[in-house]
Amino acid sequence: MSTYEDRLTALRAELARRRLDGFVVPLTDEHMSEYVGAYAQRLAWLTGFQGSAGSAVVLPADAAIFTDGRYTLQVREQVDGSHWSYQPVPQASIAGYLAQHAPDDARIGYDPWLHTRDWVAQASAALTARGAELVAVDTNPVDAVWPDRPAPSNATLVVHSDRHAGRTSADKRQDIADWLVTKGADAVVLAALDAIAWTLNVRGSDVDHTPVALAYAIVNADATADLFVAPEKMADDVMQHLGNAVRVHPRDAFADHLRTLRGQRIAVDPTQAVAAIFARLEDGGARVLEARDPTLVAKAIKNDGEIAGQRAAQARDGAALTRFLHWLSIEAPKGGLTELSAAAKLEAFRRENGDLVDLSFDSISGAGPNGAICHYRVDAASNRPIEIDSLYLIDSGGQYRDGTTDVTRTVAVGTPTADMRDRFTRVLKGHIALSQAVFPEGTVGGQLDVLARQYLWAVGLDYPHGTGHGVGAFLSVHEGPQRISPAWSSQSGGSEPLRAGMILSNEPGYYKAGEYGIRIENLLLVERREIAGAEQPMLGFETLTFAPIDRALIDVDLLDRSERAWLDAYHADVRTRIGAQLDGDARTWLETVTAPIA
Length: 598
Description:
The protein is of the alpha+beta class. Strand 22 (468-470) and strand 23 form a beta hairpin. Helix 16 runs antiparallel to helix 17 (445-457).
């Protein structure tokens, strides 16, 4: 099938064969993952959309794709509007769309291994109101018409050392067992891949840029666990690491195993476990307890070993980025660079020291107008040259055994306009304000989000994404539950209290469609603050990311005295932490670009 139109036609024919009047195609896998393996990229195969979040609905005469504000421009470039309508999230929902567009008495299919139970209830209610029905399918119809669908990865698991993890798996399982006792439960199902990797101190390579393995786990009240993973993925050293307290079963035995838990009280997180897991448990006579995954907050609060590893990884990564920025300052003005060639060069710098395991996501390498696409993903067709008198945005990161990085810098190639400098400086002011925030324990991310937006709001501007997301420790570059985002953001988690040890990004931006994009991103560690006279426990942020911020884009007159002091102090830290890792021209350049501002 050579065109996306052909694929849509084939899916509609398959739905008709199954007596279905529609089907919902989410961008996720059986673990409700944000980033998925190639075998689960059904939305991309069907529509051409390359973003990391979205869903689609296919009806006999209509088709719609649902994306949030990060992808407003991207979805229109990648998905044919003559076959698909563009639906903005959160203003539009799949349930609402089905309620308006599904035929009367329709049978709308869904894959119960790709949706939560709450989603099923909402969609069912919307369809029932117009006499239609939501139907669970046994096999996914997209798979039936995808002739060259990749097989799931068979890469072996690897041990994540206790030194890097900061705690043993036995300790973590005991904490989960203690939690189960408080809940009066016999076991908990862990469906999220990063939860399993964190609990068992293992990593994998089944999902691009996220070091996890395709598996399920059940942790029991006696601190033992059952791991469901393809047998060919288990090496002897991993088996020895897991020990006798972790029983290993084939991954395809998981669904049937759930039916054997009759009479047991099983905890399941309704936001991370798919509807099929609940159905199998209930069919088998288990008593299901809906409860938040007990690893979620524990994983987000980094221990001393993980924090030390993150600091080391950030310094190593910052040196690679700084070498790249020095190289870019020489080569970009000459012409001849492209988005792809620049991203490849940055990856090469990261690989030089031999510690890089993988990138933490596909680098967002955006020149000129492509920088205005928040989550742009360059390919051969979209690849633009980096032109003189333009802005270049590079958002990238690395996966190291001791930490995960995510950093964005925007640089001027040639001479920036006054408009570019004004917008960049307002973004920088917001970045500084958030970095300097001091706040009481119990503060949620949504309460801090306005700090980063205020200087854009002052002139009627904004950016269409959250300000910060959680980051894992050699795990997912997007980790919950913490976020810094407004209530309307599709990135949930803005209501989660921030706790000491959590890591978040600080990435305000500005995007002028068709012209340029700006984003400045560092990672922050939530830390306790001792304040004389304070009447309650207070928190603040430690900056973890160190790389120069382009002074050519700063309108110094817009910065107040404290903001100038912050920038000078930050650049002094960059020289101290990064300078010793550089030599020659790169080190001299760093000294120049991080000198105190006038």
